[in-house]
Model the fold of this input.
Amino acid sequence: MIKMNPTEQMQITLEKQPRHRRILSIDVLRGITIAGMILVNNPGGEEVYTPFAHASWIGLTPADLVFPFFMFLMGITTYLSLRKYQFEWSWACSRKIIKRTFCLWGIGLIIEWLMMLSYRLTESADSIVPFLGDSFSHLRLLGVLPRLGICYGLAAVIVLSTKHKYIPWIIAFLFMGYYVILESCNGWVHDSANILAIVDKTVLGTNHCFIWDVPDPEGVLSTVPALAHVLLGFCVGKYVMNSEGLDNQIERLFIIGVLLTLVGWLLSFGCPVSKKIWSPTFSMITCGMCSAILALLIWGIDKRGYKNSAITFFLVFGVNPLILYVLSELLFMPLSILPLGDYTISHWTYHSFLFPMFGAKLASLVWGLCVVGLVWYCGLTLYKKKIFISL
Done:
């Protein structure tokens, strides 16, 4: 029998432990979603190509994919970030969850308030003082960043407080319960009689809801399937990342992606696909598509080592997603709200230069790409200096 000293035993033990390799494709795909969100949110004019416009109610366009893709990836990264705490409550873990949740929500509220202020500036300078005294009574309380914060916080609490084998059942319960509410409470109509709009008005008040559409696309009740969406990303992340080797991870991701997309499509005949109400089939299809695309990216980038300027371009967005998205929202105000003569800066550029050169739809796309490029250039500065800002 060969005897080993404690040092040799420790070395062998460490070698047997799985080494968690950072998957570059997650950052790249996250960067694609952020760039897509910025492009979709910043059209130069009212006419845009169909793929860059959200579906009006029922249906799915490429523009509808970027936000759910980001939320699915947030579920995967939630697994990766909480894994180092062994999925157990601690002061450091609790502080991180609370900080991230309320920072995301708070930043979203600040951006919404600044946009309201900018719109008032375009109307009349005399309205600023009354606005400052009464602005919070008309502030939208939900939105993209608040939804991210709320879903992250709730998902983190669930995965730390529940045995992980029960999480798929929680997801199924949330999807099925939400579907029953939609079916039994007028959830498919696109007006104020929709149960989602009624709940938003009752819980938040009319002044705190999205004024450009009814029901609010990031409202109270649709947070339920959005939470299930993030939990689905968590389960996929756990199932895939616990497998050994990139080949197994790619295979699992692709199989899950195909199955989720197929099941979501089959169920869509009874539960229509809609981003505006975040229907369960919308979650399943978008999670499935994201999973399959991530598998392809891992095969090309992490396995085969394929890298070029396009990968670097999206990586700049992916390693600093929050700060660059916030920057794009802040740029929207001076570019698309504040006046320049009879137009705003974006409309002046669109009508004076881009529209005469390219026509309506292509001019809108060119302007959006310019905004993406401007934000990317700012992100490139952070990337070169190795500055990565996260909550």
